[in-house]
Design a protein that fits this description.
The complex is a heterodimer of chains A (about 400) and B (about 230). By secondary structure, chain A is an alpha+beta fold. Chain A has helices at about 5-10, 15-55, 65-70, 80-85, 120-125, 150-160, 195-200, 205-210, 230-245, 255, 260-295, 300-305, 310-350, 355-360, 375-400, 405-410, and strands at about 60-65, 90-105, 110-120, 135, 145-150, 165-170, 175-190, 200-205, 220-225, 250-255, 350, 370. Chain A contains 16 helices and twelve strands. In chain A, strands 2-3-8-5-7-6 form a six-stranded mixed β-barrel. Chain A has a two-stranded antiparallel ribbon with strand order 11-12. In chain A, a hairpin with a 2-residue loop joins β2 (about 90-105) and β3. The two termini of chain A are about 30 Å apart. The mean pLDDT of chain A is about 90. In chain B, about 35% of the residues lie in helices and about 30% in strands. Chain B has helices spanning about 45-55, 75-85, 100-115, 115-130, 145-160, 175-195, 205-210, and strands at about 1-15, 20-30, 35-40, 60-65, 70, 85-90, 165-170, 195-200, 210-215, 220-225. The mean pLDDT of chain B is about 90. In chain B, α3 (about 100-115) crosses α4, α3 packs parallel to α5 and α5 runs parallel beside α6. Chain B has one domain (about 30-60, about 75-225): 3-Layer(aba) Sandwich (Rossmann fold), CATH 3.40.50.300. With about 230 residues, chain B is of the alpha/beta class. In chain B, a hairpin with a 2-residue loop joins β9 and β10. In chain B, strands 6-7-8-3-9-10 form a six-stranded mixed sheet, with helices on both faces. Chain B has a four-stranded antiparallel sheet with strand order 2-1-4-5, with helices on one face. Chain B has seven helices and ten strands. Chain B is globular and about 50 Å long. Classes of the chains: A alpha+beta (about 400), B alpha/beta (about 230).
């Protein structure tokens, strides 16, 4: 071991308590950085996953303009041709075809505007969480013609229970008024206010009749295996639909369908950055003073070393070694504990029931967030902490390296 | 053989804006093998003279030549190299590196000089044995008495066989018996190894042991000659 490394290590333990306190402060900062990074990553992923899996899907295909207008005239005329392409999409996990339009539902004197969703029950159950969100009654099935499932909010609003019949009225494609009576087969709760308060799911065959759609559909929603693969899948669909001259269709990913979600993710990332800056600054200033005091208290010693011929660069190196060793001790402890805490938060999740109302606004099915530790996040935390620890020492190291030996020997 | 030639040294300090004359037209030469004491009361300029000769301080006027090279024209890094290779320092309050053992303290300068590990160890143990610290190699300064610490400091100063050892009141913090033993040690090293010593003191015992005595008062040399042994 070089003499300066040996000196640095021993200097570190001259004031054992001070070193332990400093190392603990740095380790705590590191634990916070690892944990919050993993927590926000987990939060964002679960937020996207929730919203995507509740109903939206990663990608939707519509007729141009349908997403904006919800006009029943903007339909996919040949869904089978589109589905042939969809089925070859890279990373495809599931898809669902839907007829979608607004209407009015009524029971007795109560009525409400609703979003009518005609779905293939099996497809919809594979692509979304809707079947798992049933709180009363049953989910739709292939032979459940003439029945619907409705959101809990809508059920409460209309004072409807399972087994009651609702009338649904809408504008049909043939310019007539589509009208039908449907029995409530089940009630779901997604915590997604748009669905819970005003959505009605029915078998696609019923919707085709109600909207006079025949074999047409309004929307095909796709789920891919990982949100990272959305751009690749989207590119493929645009290219293939173009080749098949289906250019009247639009392919939108979740950031375009629900831009507020993307904004939320970006907000959380900015929040994380601010949080990290605060933690880093708190750690920096927490140990800066300790480090400075430690160096100033040894100026006379540095003076003697310089008088004997130690070069300024060697004094500088000695102090940087000291802070690096301090950082490495903190790193070993902080990285270990940070990893442990994050793994526990990944396995057990963190129940944020306290903030449940806020979560409902985000469309979360569950209030439990699972921290997700990424290799990048972990390495980032380690690099930030070791860099901070070294940076903290630079000013005191320059001060010690520059002092004249005689001034330092006289230093009190 | 002349190793140091200090010519017309003047040093003026500023003390709260008031100029203080620490050295006034001091000239002296030091020859190889000298055992010189600079004596004088507090404030007479002893430490200032030692610091200027050792390249730790610069004179306001005058020149210091070490083997013909002018120290006062050297850069800080040249002076650092010079201190490392040509000088040994013994300070009043020992000033050992507290986290290093006696052996490591003695090896430190040789470390800076790039002396290989085995050679360092051999020379350091040899000199520690010579100063009477056999068996105390691995003790840290806080486990050594004042006299033992000062002997480590002497060993550290001489181990690299410097051209000149500068000792600033080396016995000031020691009791008289320990101080005498330290002077015996330095005199022995001077005679046996031919190491040149220049020390400042106001201790009559130390003055008596010097072979050459320079008396300073108010920054001026007021007497110089061979020490009176009578």
């Amino acid at each position: 071991m070089g003499v300066f490394l040996r000196l640095a290590w021993r200097n570190l333990w001259r004031h054992r308590r001070r070193t332990i306190i400093s190392a603990s402060a740095i380790a705590f900062g590191l634990i916070c950085i690892i944990f919050f990074h993993a927590f926000i990553t987990g939060f964002n992923e679960s937020y996207i996953e929730n919203a995507v899996r509740v109903y939206m899907g990663h990608i939707q295909i519509h007729h141009q303009g349908f997403q904006e207008s919800m006009n029943i005239d903007d339909y996919i005329a040949d869904p089978q041709a589109v589905l042939r392409i969809v089925s070859q999409t890279p990373h495809l996990q599931a898809y669902t075809t839907r007829i979608k339009g607004y209407g009015l539902t009524a029971i007795g004197d109560n009525s409400s505007g609703v979003l009518i969703l005609g779905v293939v029950p099996e497809e919809e159950a594979q692509a979304t969480f809707i079947e798992e969100c049933m709180v009363e009654g049953k989910y739709l099935s292939a032979d459940s013609i003439g029945t619907i499932i409705i959101g809990k909010g809508l059920a409460d609003n209309l004072q409807v229970k399972v087994g009651d019949s609702l009338i649904i009225i809408t504008n049909a494609l043939d310019r007539t008024t589509g009208r039908g009576r449907y029995t409530v087969r089940g009630i779901f709760r997604t915590n997604y206010s748009e669905l819970d308060g005003g959505a009605v799911f029915m078998n696609i065959a019923d919707a085709q009749g109600l909207f006079a759609y025949d074999d047409k559909v309004s929307e095909i929603a796709l789920l891919v295996d990982d949100s990272q693969n959305v751009p690749q899948a989207k590119r493929f669909l645009i290219e293939q639909l173009g080749q098949e001259r289906l250019t009247q269709l639009e392919v939108l990913d979740w950031t375009e369908i629900a831009p507020q979600m993307q904004q939320m993710v970006e907000f959380m990332e900015i929040f994380l950055e601010i949080l990290l800056v605060i933690i880093i600054l708190a750690t920096f200033f927490g140990i800066f003073n300790t480090m400075l005091m430690s160096i100033l208290g040894r100026m006379r010693e540095f003076g003697i070393m310089k008088a004997m011929g130690t070069r300024p660069s060697q004094i500088f190196r000695l102090i940087i070694y000291e802070s690096s060793l301090l950082g490495l001790i903190a790193l070993a402890v902080g990285a270990g504990l940070g990893y442990l805490v994050t793994v526990l938060a990944n396995i057990n999740g963190l129940d944020l029931a306290f903030f449940a109302e806020g979560f409902e606004a985000f469309g979360a099915i569950t209030t439990i967030v699972y921290a997700k530790l990424t290799l990048n996040g972990f390495i980032f935390a380690l690099v930030v902490v070791i860099t901070t620890t070294v940076l903290v020492a630079i000013y005191p190291a320059i001060k010690a390296a520059r002092i004249k030996p005689l001034e330092a020997i006289r230093y009190i | 053989m002349e190793i140091i030639n200090a010519v017309n040294l003047v040093k003026i300090y500023e003390d709260k804006g008031v100029p203080v004359m620490a050295l006034s037209d001091v000239s002296l030469t030091i020859n190889k093998g000298d055992f010189i004491s600079i004596a004088g009361p507090s404030g007479s300029g002893k430490t200032t003279l030692l610091n200027i000769i050792g390249g730790l301080d610069a004179p306001t006027k005058g020149r210091v030549y070490l083997e013909g090279e002018d120290l006062t024209r050297m850069s800080p890094s040249q002076l650092a190299r010079l201190r490392l290779n040509k000088y040994g320092f013994i300070f009043q309050s020992y000033n050992l590196i507290p986290v290093l053992t006696a052996l490591e303290n003695v090896e430190y300068v040789m470390h800076l000089q790039g002396v290989p590990s085995q050679e360092r160890h051999r020379r350091a143990t040899e000199i520690l044995d010579e100063v009477g610290l056999r068996g105390m190699y691995n003790r840290r300064p806080d486990h050594l008495s004042g006299g033992e610490q000062q002997r480590v400091a002497v060993a550290r100063a001489v181990v690299a066989i410097p051209m000149l050892v500068l000792a600033d009141e080396p016995t000031a913090n020691l009791d008289s018996a320990t101080g005498e033993r330290l002077m015996d040690l330095m005199a022995r090293l001077n005679q046996k190894r031919g190491i040149t010593f220049l020390f400042s003191t106001h201790d009559p015992m130390v003055m008596d042991r010097a072979r050459r005595l320079i008396r300073l008062k108010d920054g001026r040399i007021v007497g110089e000659g061979n020490a009176d042994r009578g």
